[in-house]
Amino acid sequence: MEHEKIGAFISLLRKEKGLTQKELAAQLNVTDKAVSKWERGLCYPDISLLSPLSEALGVSVAELLSGARNTCVSPDAETVAASAMGYAKRAAGEKRRSLQRFAAAGFTALLFLGGIVCAICNIAIDRGLTWAWYPICSIVLAWCLCYPVLRCGRKGIARALFALSALILPYLYTLQRLCGCPVLPIGAPMALLGLAFLWGLFAVWRRGGKQPYRAAGWSFVLAAILDLAANLVLSRLLETAPFKLWDLLEAAVLLAAAAGCLYFDRIRH
Questions:
Q1: Model-level pTM greater than 0.70?
Q2: Is the pLDDT of residue 81 over 90?
Q3: What is the DSSP string of 165-216?
């Protein structure tokens, strides 16, 4: 990995200079722990420290960024700038991944603590687990949906949708068993409609994310279809009138918004 190569190179140069981590850190006004992290490849030095760090170690910035000595290093400014930009991009990516790991771990800890608190309160009040199963099941579902997104960012959206597709019906079935109410007859069709809508949104934005107005337009179309389909399904399940004036007006507004977005996308291109 690039950061490990740079870290090993920093360690080698520091030892050649006869410097301890604390002495090098003092020259750069950072902590020795920061230097230790660089050398172990856990993180990159801040881009503002590249010049003083290279001077302290007796190499050029380009050599430092490449993680190796090079007697043929070009002094061309564009070469150094390109190396610095690549380094900054890698450092930003590493910082983003660290934040994602921290957010995912913190979210997991909070949900786990919430489940434990619910269980303890339930046992203390009712001498057993009764109502606590409701929040515990919901916590498990929330973790399965949110953790991939927090941990992997945009790449985790597909994983979250797969988890929702696999777990939503078992979740509704579990709620039905716990409460003894007919949750599935209405919940299952609505959940399947919602899943179709979410997967449609995912496909639209994945394919047309670089054209946001077009993607937004088709998203409004999908929302209008979902609105009409949900009303039709509910009317059949509950034996009521399929569409009211408000439902048709709502769908018309969504389709008008879709037309506006698609028209604006067309005149832009």
A1: no
A2: no
A3: HHHHHHHHHHHHHHH-S--HHHHHHHHHHHHHHHHHHHHHHHHHTTSHHHHH
